Amino acid sequence: MRASALSVAILSAFAASLAAGAAQAGDVEIYGIIDTGLNYQHVDADTQEDATNQLQMKSSQSIPNRWGMRGTESLANGLKVGFMLEGQFSSDTGEMTGGRLFHRTAQVSLTSQSLGTIALGRSGALRSGFGSTGLWAVKINPFSSSWGDYMIGNKYIMPGGFKAVDNAITYQSPVMSGLQLHAQYSMKIDKNEDQVENKASSDRQWGLGATYTQGPVHVVAVLDSVMYANSEETDDYDDSLAFSLGGTYNFGFMKLYVSGMYFKGMKQTEFQGHVFSGSNDIASGASYKGYSVQTGVDVPLWGGTAKANIAWMDAKVDQKVTFNEVNDEDIDRFGIAVGYSYPLSKRTSLYAGAGYVRDTSNIDGREPSAIEAVSGMVVRF
Question: With 82 labelled, which of 121, 127, 283, 298 sits at a CA distance of 20 to 30 A?
Fold first, then answer.
C-alpha cells in the first residue's frame, strides 16, 4: 500500500510538472507530414539495354515527409524570439534523410516589427521550399519541387538550390505594401571535414530575393550564387550564378503558374534528377550554362484540384576545368505532368499523377526518357 501510495504521489507530481511545463511552452508546436503511396516507373536509357519497369512503395512523392517543432517567445520592445527544428524521413523505411536529425531546418530567429527578421543556422535556401526562409516550391509550381523522381516540378527542370544550407544567416525585411526583401549567406553549405567555414576552401552561397503578394498576384525573384571551394586539391571552378523569376495569378476558376531561370557555372552535382540510369551523365569535368521555362495550372475540379505543368530546359558546357575529355554537349530536357489531389479532411488528402520527361543530347543523338505514375495519401498532424 505504501509503495502504491508512493507511486501515485510520484505520478501525480510528474503530471503536475508536465502540465506546468506545457503552460509555460504554450507557443511551442509539434507538427508533421506523412506522404506514402505507390510508384511506377518506365525508364528507357535509349541504349542497347532494355527499358526497365518498376512498381514500388515510395514516400515523399507529392510533398517531403517531415516532423518538426517550432515556437516563439515575445520579448520587450516588440521583439520576438523564435526557433524551428525540422527533420525529413522516409515513411516506407523509417530512415532519416541525409543521416541528419534535422535535415530541413535547425535555426533560431529574432524578429522586430520595424526592422524584420534575422535567422541563424541550417535554413532553407531562398530558392527552395524548406522551412521559413525558402521562397520557391509550392508557391511557384503546381507540383511544388516535383512529384516523384521524374515528374516535372521545379528542381528537375531548374538546376541548383531546392535544399537547405548549413551555417546560414538569413534576413527578411518587414512586408511593405505586399513587398518583402530577403538576403542570405551560407558560410559553408554542407558538412565537410576538409573545408573550413567562411574560407575559400569551402563551398559558400549567397542569395538575394524579393517577394510581392497583393490580391490574386504572387511574384518571386531570386538571384543566387555558389562560391565553389578552391584549393590545390580541387578544380578551380568559376562561381555559379542564377536568376530565377516566377509568379502566380489566381483567376478563381484557375490558378496560373509561370517561372523561368537563367544559369551559368552549374556543376554536375547541381543537376538533380538529370541522369537516366547513368546513360546521360552531365560531364563531371565541366560546368554548364543555360535556361529553363515552365508553366502550369491548378483547376478546382470535383471537390479537389486538377494540376498540369509543361517545362523545357537547355544546358550547354560553360567551363572545362579538367584534363578529362569533355565534349561541348548541348542537352535539352522536355517534360509534361498532370495530377489530381482530393481532400478527405482538413488534414488528409489523396493524390495521383503521371508524367513524361525526355532528354536530348547533340553528341550521340540519344533520347533517354521516363514515364512515371504516382498515387498516395498525405496526412498532416
Answer: 127
Type of residue found at 28: V
Between CA 261 and CA 255, with CA 141 as vertex, the angle to 5 degrees is 120
Residue-level pLDDT, tens digit, the chain, 381 residues: 334 443 344 334 333 433 444 434 448 999 999 999 999 999 988 878 888 999 999 999 999 999 999 999 999 988 999 999 999 999 999 999 988 999 999 999 999 999 999 999 999 999 999 999 999 877 899 998 889 988 887 888 888 878 899 999 999 999 999 999 999 999 999 988 778 888 888 999 999 999 999 999 999 999 999 999 886 656 678 899 999 999 999 999 999 999 999 999 988 777 776 554 444 555 667 788 999 999 999 999 999 999 999 999 998 888 877 655 666 678 889 999 999 999 999 999 999 999 999 988 777 677 888 999 999 999 999
Instruction: Please tell me the distance from the alpha carbon of residue 311 to that of residue 258, in angstroms, as a whole number.
Output: 10
- Domains in the chain, ordered, with CATH? 28-380 (2.40.160.10)
Tell me the DSSP string of 210-261: EEEEETTEEEEEEEEEEE---STTS--PPPPEEEEEEEEEE-SS-EEEEEEE
